[in-house]
Amino acid sequence: MRRSILMSIVLTAVVVLWFAGVATAQEAGAGAKDSGGAGGVTTYLDWFFIKGGPIAWLLIAVDIASWAVIIEHLVTIRRLNILPEPVKAQIGDMVEARQYKEMIEYASTDPSFLAYVVHQSLSEASHGYAAMERAMEEAAEERTAKLLRKIELLNVIGNVSPMMGLLGTVYGMIDVFSTIVDAGGMPDPAGLAGGVGIALVTTFWGLIVAIPALAVYAFMRNRIDSLSSEVMMVAQETISTFRPGGKKKSNGG
């Protein structure tokens, strides 16, 4: 949680600094013009923030939060935490040495996906190989479901954000038509700018939020499926020595 908050602060600072740079560049360019060109100073801020209204502001906040979630997922949901090579190698060495008691203790202290599945499976060794396989499958399903629930937030953001943008678009078009009616069918183009700004800017921000959120969601889902399948293969190989007719464990482990 603290990591996500820190990321949100950093991303907010980056966005603010970027727009400040744009505004500064616009102001520097406007300095060489007469006062009639002063409107260029606030062009970006006006269209992308002010004219978008509360809906655009909310989408911008969601975008910042979405990127914080994306970065956190990319950092935590990876091979290093799910199927770390040192843990895989250590478990393999213990299997070769038939140090089963030590392996159970080692797996109970490691936080990785692989260690959890192996520990749950070996804990059922006294109930037979079938119980070990069942425990392995249940543990893998539990951890996989937990990871999928974790990334589901990106799916929700990716699907809701365009709807929020569409809401702003509909509201903006209503405002445009209201302006036309109030003007008797001949409105001043400047009078339509507010409604058009809401209609376009909210759609823009809705897509800006949705596209990376859905793309990263699909990528992370594939990563979870791939790594969980590898974990199952490694865990299956680990407990294969307990299979009836397989290698027998020694009493020294």
Structure overview:
The protein is mainly alpha-helical. The protein has one domain. Helices cover 80% and strands 0% of the residues. Helix 1 packs across helix 3 and helix 7 packs parallel to helix 9. The radius of gyration is 28 Å and the shape is rod-shaped.
Q: How is this structure best summarized?
A:
This protein is an all-alpha fold and 253 residues long. The chain has helices at residues 2-30, 43-50, 53-76, 79-82, 85-96, 100-109, 113-122, 129-182, 189-239.
SSE layout and pairing:
Elements: H1 2-30, H2 43-50, H3 53-76, H4 79-82, H5 85-96, H6 100-109, H7 113-122, H8 129-182, H9 189-239
Helix pairs in contact: 1-3, 3-8, 3-9, 6-7, 7-8, 7-9, 8-9
Keywords:
9 helices; disordered C terminus; mainly alpha
The biggest beta sheet reads:
none
For the record, the count of structural domains works out to 1
Q: What is the ordering of alpha helices and beta strands?
A: HHHHHHHHH
Distance from N terminus to C terminus (CA atoms, Å) equals: 41 Å
Shape descriptor reads: rod-shaped
Q: How many beta-strand segments?
A: 0
Mean pLDDT: 79
| Contiguous uncertain segments of 5+ residues | 30-41, 248-253
Strand content: under 5%
- Radius of gyration over alpha carbons? 28 Å
Amount of helix = over 70%
